[in-house]
Known about the structure:
Blueprint: H1 14-46, H2 50-64, H3 71-78, H4 82-94, E1 98-101, E2 111-114, H5 116-137, H6 142-163
Antiparallel strand pairs: 1-2
Amino acid sequence: MAGQSPEGMAGKSPEGIAAQRERLAEGLQAYGAAFTELGRRFAVTLNVHSTDAFALLEIASAEAKGAPISPAQLSKRIALTSGAMTTLLNRLEQAGYIGRTREHSDRRVVTLRASPLVKELGDDFFGPINARQDAVLAEYSPEVLRQFETLVARLRATIEDYNR
């Protein structure tokens, strides 16, 4: 089914595909809005601006994946100018939420690290919702979940390509 044109899918009219795309987009937008609200509530817990909280989530997530990020990479992910990023990082560092290190072979490259406090607060805050979402995901086969991951990735890539 993946990779087939609408004409090649039995019983799938272009109108049916468009209606399904709209339903899926509505669902993804609603999920995005709910995730944004969750991030806003995390910001309140930390007593920071929501942009700061999303930056912390990006920093901690990248670090957890074994690929800590630089300020330049972070500014691309949350779309801030270099001046605004510097101000944000200064606030987070002064609050004890992040550290900046120079661990790259190019000593000019700064690496952002979340503090143990952020990791603890993040685990406490997101642990319950992660467990609930894991329970939902457990209701689906690994193959269905892989297909959904592929679908979402391809839809995102389509939009990113179009935006370029």
